[in-house]
């Protein structure tokens, strides 16, 4: 078995540096024990990282290099990460509590695939595009000269990337590789719960030969450094993935300097089953995916199941049967489908929400407790709540754990109303054999992503939300544009 990654230094201005604050213990949620420590930055070191990033952008070569040259450097960085594949997988298991399957496939392999594909995609984009001027407007008033009106895309500057605990490598790759490909410089600040893979990015950047200051990695136990990153005028963009509550605070902190923000926040996504999609297997596999994906700790997971009311009783039994059948246990056990949640605080939060849902009239049909056979680890049994009122807190608030609500609808219009009756709008799914109908329903769902029968999540597909699920997009061309400024350039002959 490979060992987990271990780092004794931060990465600031191109160099490994000792942390100036106390070391931070990283807890294994399956064992409730500290398995390693990492250095942490003082506020002065976060300030130094911002200054290094500012200097690198304003004076360094990175932003002025051709996109193909940046892509080549980032390919070397991806190679350096890939060389640590086994250690990254082991780190994901220990650091996040991912099952071995999820750690390998979703935590690491997808992240490495995106690390290679994002710079390659960016290198295919034009630096400028013609504006869609009417032909007559392409001539100057004398009619003797042609006016060139173009859109030029330029890097926005210094990016503060603040990442969550659930998919730490993947979300860091989305932000760091997209911003660097666009020519920005970056200060990466990971969640204190899962800081190790962020330091791996710093080591990979050094191996790849990124110019000093282009990427800086700072870890902290608290939030003072993150607050400095969001408020400091030297930072041009804050890209944050995490809870809606924290996202609101970041938006407020960024407002005085009018910097751009990219916020990928919470979700309460629906899985809307039309009558023809309730045959054997589909409903079960969808719910199993929720429970098995980081024990439900995914903002885009479809945790609200909607079915026709005449099929509700049968669907409840089927979903409850899935919840009861899934093995909850240690992440390394190949039979385990559901591992631990990240911390005692998160487990307690999930339990409070389930209790609130029951108090509001929801019926607990599976789970709702801690597995009796596991006395160590932050485990929550896969939980299913039957709700008949969409105002139930379990149907409205993000659990971020292995909790699913199931609800009946009378007709398609009511189903769409229930789907849209949420503060969130990150993702969702519609399941039907009638693709034309599925597409028409998808157009009515207010969400950043809607999948009909299946989804695609790769480097080329944008992700982001509407309403309180966020602002902006990650991945794909839309994700690159978040890290670019649009400049209008007009060229005509001298008078």
Oligomer: single chain
Q: What portion of the residues fall into strands of 2 or more residues?
A: 15-25%
Category from helices, strands and their pairing: alpha/beta
Could you tell me the CATH topology label of the largest domain.
Aldehyde Dehydrogenase, Chain A, domain 1
**Number of helices in the DSSP assignment:** 15
Look at the structure and name the CATH superfamily of the largest domain: Aldehyde Dehydrogenase, Chain A, domain 1
Can you describe this structure?
- Helix 1 runs parallel beside helix 7.
- The strands form five sheets. Strands 14-15-16-13-12-17-18 form a seven-stranded mixed sheet, with helices on both faces.
- The chain is 37% helix and 19% strand.
- It is of the alpha/beta class.
- The chain is globular.
- The chain has helices spanning 43-59, 67-82, 85-96, 100-123, 168-181, 196-208, 224-231, 244-254, 282-292, 312-325, 344-359, 393-396, 412-420, 435-442, 476-481; strands at residues 10-12, 15-17, 21-28, 33-40, 128-130, 148-155, 158-162, 185-189, 215-217, 237-241, 260-264, 270-273, 304-308, 363-366, 383-386, 403-409, 428-431, 451-452, 470-471, 484-491.
- Belongs to the aldehyde dehydrogenase family.
What's a quick, concise take on this entry?
The protein has helices spanning 43-59, 67-82, 85-96, 100-123, 168-181, 196-208, 224-231, 244-254, 282-292, 312-325, 344-359, 393-396, 412-420, 435-442, 476-481, and strands at residues 10-12, 15-17, 21-28, 33-40, 128-130, 148-155, 158-162, 185-189, 215-217, 237-241, 260-264, 270-273, 304-308, 363-366, 383-386, 403-409, 428-431, 451-452, 470-471, 484-491.
């Amino acid at each position: 078995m490979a060992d987990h990654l271990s780092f004794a230094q931060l990465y600031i201005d191109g160099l490994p540096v000792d942390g100036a604050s106390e070391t931070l213990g990283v807890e294994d949620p399956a064992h409730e024990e500290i398995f390693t420590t990492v250095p942490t930055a003082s506020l002065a070191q976060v300030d130094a990282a911002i200054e290094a990033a500012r200097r690198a952008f304003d004076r360094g070569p990175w932003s002025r290099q051709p996109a193909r040259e940046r892509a080549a450097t980032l390919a070397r960085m991806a190679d350096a990460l890939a060389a640590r594949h086994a250690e990254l997988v082991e780190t994901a298991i220990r650091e996040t509590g991912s099952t071995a399957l999820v750690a390998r496939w979703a935590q690491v392999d997808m992240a490495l695939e995106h690390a290679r594909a994002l710079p390659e995609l960016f290198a295919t984009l034009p630096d400028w595009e013609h504006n869609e001027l009417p032909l007559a407007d392409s001539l100057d008033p004398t009619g003797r000269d042609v006016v060139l009106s173009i859109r030029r895309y330029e890097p926005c500057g210094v990016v503060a990337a603040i990442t969550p605990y659930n998919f730490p490598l993947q979300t860091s790759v989305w932000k760091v590789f997209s911003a660097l490909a666009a020519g920005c410089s970056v200060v990466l600040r990971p969640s204190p719960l899962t800081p190790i893979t962020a330091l791996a990015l710093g080591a990979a950047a050094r191996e790849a030969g990124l110019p000093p200051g282009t990427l800086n990695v700072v870890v902290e136990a608290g939030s003072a450094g993150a607050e400095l990153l969001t408020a400091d005028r030297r930072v041009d963009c804050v890209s944050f993935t995490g809870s809606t509550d924290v996202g609101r605070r970041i938006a407020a902190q960024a407002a005085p300097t009018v910097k751009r923000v990219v916020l990928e926040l919470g979700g309460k996504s629906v899985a809307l089953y039309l009558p023809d999609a309730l045959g054997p297997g589909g409903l079960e596999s969808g719910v199993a995916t929720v429970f098995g994906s980081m024990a439900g700790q995914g903002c885009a997971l479809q945790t609200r199941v909607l079915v026709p009311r005449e099929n509700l009783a049968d669907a409840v039994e089927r979903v409850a049967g899935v919840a009861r059948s899934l093995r909850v246990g240690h992440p390394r056990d190949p039979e385990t489908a559901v591992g631990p949640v990240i911390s005692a605080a998160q487990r307690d939060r999930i339990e409070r929400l389930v209790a609130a849902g029951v108090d509001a009239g929801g019926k607990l049909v599976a789970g709702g407790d801690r597995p009796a056979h596991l006395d160590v680890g932050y485990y929550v049994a896969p939980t299913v709540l039957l709700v008949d009122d969409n105002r139930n807190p379990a149907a409205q608030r993000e659990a971020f754990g292995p909790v699913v609500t199931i609800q009946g609808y009378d007709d398609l219009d009511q189903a769409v109303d229930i789907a849209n009756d949420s503060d969130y709008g990150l993702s969702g799914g519609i399941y039907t054999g009638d693709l034309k109908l599925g597409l028409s329903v998808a157009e009515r769902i207010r969400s950043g992503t809607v999948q009909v029968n299946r989804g695609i999540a790769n480097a080329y597909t944008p992700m982001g939300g509407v309403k309180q699920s966020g602002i902006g997009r990650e991945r794909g061309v839309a994700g690159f544009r978040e890290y670019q400024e649009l400049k209008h350039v007009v060229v005509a002959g001298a008078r």
